[in-house]
Specification:
Order of helices and strands: EHE
Number of domains: 1
Number of helices: 1
Structural class: alpha+beta
Number of strands: 2
Shape: elongated
Strand content: 35-45%
Strand order of the largest sheet: 1-2
Length: 42
């Protein structure tokens, strides 16, 4: 219940875990995703 009713910003990695996958996990934990993106860190 650590994320219940919290607002989160997610930055995923193209070669790792993408943003939408992380967003889905934190939403099921009760968080509100205000921004989600997948970036390429080269």
């Amino acid at each position: 219940m650590l994320l219940k009713d919290k607002k989160v910003i997610i930055i995923g990695d193209r070669d790792g875990i993408p943003g939408p996958a992380i967003a889905q996990c934190v939403q099921t934990a009760g968080a509100d995703v205000v921004f989600s993106s997948t970036e390429c860190f080269v």
